[in-house]
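Worked Example 4.2. Read the sequence first, then its structure tokens.
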Amino acid sequence: MPYYITYGDFQYHLKEYYQRTGSRMQFPEMTDYLYYKGLLSDKPLPGLPANKMYGSMSDEEFDKVMDSFVLALTPNTSITSKVDESVIIPQTRDVFVIRHPRYTRPAPHIHNYFEIDFVASGQCTFVFENEKRTLKTGELCIIAPHSRHDLTIDDESTVFCIMIRKSTFNTTFFSLMSQKNLLSYFFRTILQGDSHSNYLMFYSEDVVWLKNIIRNAMSECYKRDAFSNNNCISWIHLFFSHLIRDYSKTIQFYNYQMGTDFSLILQYIQHNYQSLTLASLAEFFHYSEPHLSTLIKQNTGCSFTTLVKQLRMADAVSYLTNTQMKISEIAECIGYNSADHFSRVFRATHKMSPQEYRKKHQTQEELFMPFEEIKEGNW
């Protein structure tokens, strides 16, 4: 049976207990403490208004709104280092967003869902396997399932946690899996059965836009209507798109077995593929060409040449469908010396020429005619 309390009251008791005793509690411990003290309600509290948006609020205003959000708690839940999504993510939700509690004690753990931690203000201590670092305002970390980690929040800092079911990616975020970027690569690697501890780190100098997205996604988690789950998913789609578009050059990749260097290699390839050779890449990272070739094959499933071609073709499709650039200009932008060479490779990949691909796309757009032209005399 669930019991209920607002965010504000729960956080108040965590802080009060720490100030009174000098000790910190984990979330389940405080839940039991409040239950035995008779401080939880057995009746659901009101949800949020369905038509309210929260992106334009100041931090102080939104903090007050968050304090009114309602937590559904289950007392007498055993404390374990392995956390299942069913304990954290409500049954009707694919995505669940919370403000990480302050004044909690460290407790390294693993779980079977993706966790995204975003430092909206202040800082927090992030522990991952044998690594410890301080995350500051604007830093964001995506943690893979089955990765041992912990997060402790500095008092008065604000960190948002986005939790996404692993199974949700197979349907809801399927389009993200097909893209040619490091964020998509990270998710594909995990979902294809890679059980290695892993995270992906981003840094944003401008936190306003990300805060706006997360605030509205979070508010949907506490609305009680038939649209809120899909609305939350839509906000998270926008969140991922924003990361890929504006912060892809800040990515730091971690893998417990292969170390951090390979993430830098992937980033370097992605942002320099137009003129990159295996020899120049090996020289830059101080690897022998055979060893680097093996690393790329092991961690991407394809050769260096194939990886570069995939990146070139992905950008070619984007240019063809979203711009009016000449074929020769596109060829130059993606690293081909001539339009003829580009056209041959494109035809081999897509079974049609670049011109045919563009014409087909534009024809499909022109077929959409929601209103027929009104001719004189037809009124």
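Now turn to a second chain, presented in exactly the same format:
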Amino acid sequence: MKIVYFDVENYEEEFLNNNNRGKYEYYLDSNTLNDMLPVKDEYKDAEIISVFTSSRVNRKVLEQFKNLKLIALRSVGFNHIDIDYCKENNIAVVNSPGYGNVTVAEFALALLLDVCRKVTVSYNNYKEGKVLPQNLIGTELCGKTAGIVGLGAIGAAFARIAYGLDMKILAYDKFEKEEMKQKYNVKYTDFDTLLKESDFISIHAPLTRDNYHMFNKSSFEKMKNTAIIVNTGRGELIDTKALYDALVTKQIAGAGLDVLESEETIADFDYMIGLNRLDKATLEKTIINSQLFKLDNVIITPHTAFNSIEAINRILNITMANINEFSKGNLQNSVI
């Protein structure tokens, strides 16, 4: 069985070599998989590919793999994969659930604290010798209302942390969990109420066809002008232009973002040298993203909320287990 691992970081190589050597024909490639570059000829007959969220695996990419049977995701989310093509061509897609529940929740809190207490702003001002205490006045989390959008495993972990900080907790989710109500005083509510009553909003929902741009111009108009939004879910849950406008006009107070729409165009060299190949909508989002970086009330990190030693080990172990089971004729953690 032939496997190609894309998006491979240096710290993943030892594990992948140890767990593939002698079992599979395999290749480790540090490049992302996207339609900017053709697939190498020696990869095209692979039966399995494994990618991280930085790859964009659309129909144009998948058509180059003539023998593909499985996509093993080193992530939970799968919106970067053309699921319709996979269904049409009997390609299984499996993910790595549960690897980063606590890790991502802790990072969301870190973003929130950074924006609330102006940690990065304070550091930059201090480094530049421009410390003005009146410009660094922050706000406490204790006693405030945290609105959690998506109370799955990560959202639940964030709720436990918020409860420990003596915060009031509102939640918007299709499924209500009695345990969350009893143990952490979570109050489930509708989306509009959460927008209007929350001091801080943390997004932990998966991206679906139904919630694309759920945070839009209308949403931001309903929020408090002191509110701070944190997104460690998916960038497409927020309308980038609407967010930028809300921040610039002080409709909301700040944002902590680990994910952005069209985030792959920011750091991927293939995109940076090929901006003329981007469609108009993607190019517009890329430009707005560059403007977000200039705002003092925004913290942006490079989709790194998952990135802890513990979570990386869990990702690799789950991915390898998924592949091993598939080689035996079993399918686990399927997303389609």
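Notes for the reader: The chain is about 40% helix and 15% strand. The radius of gyration is 21 Å.
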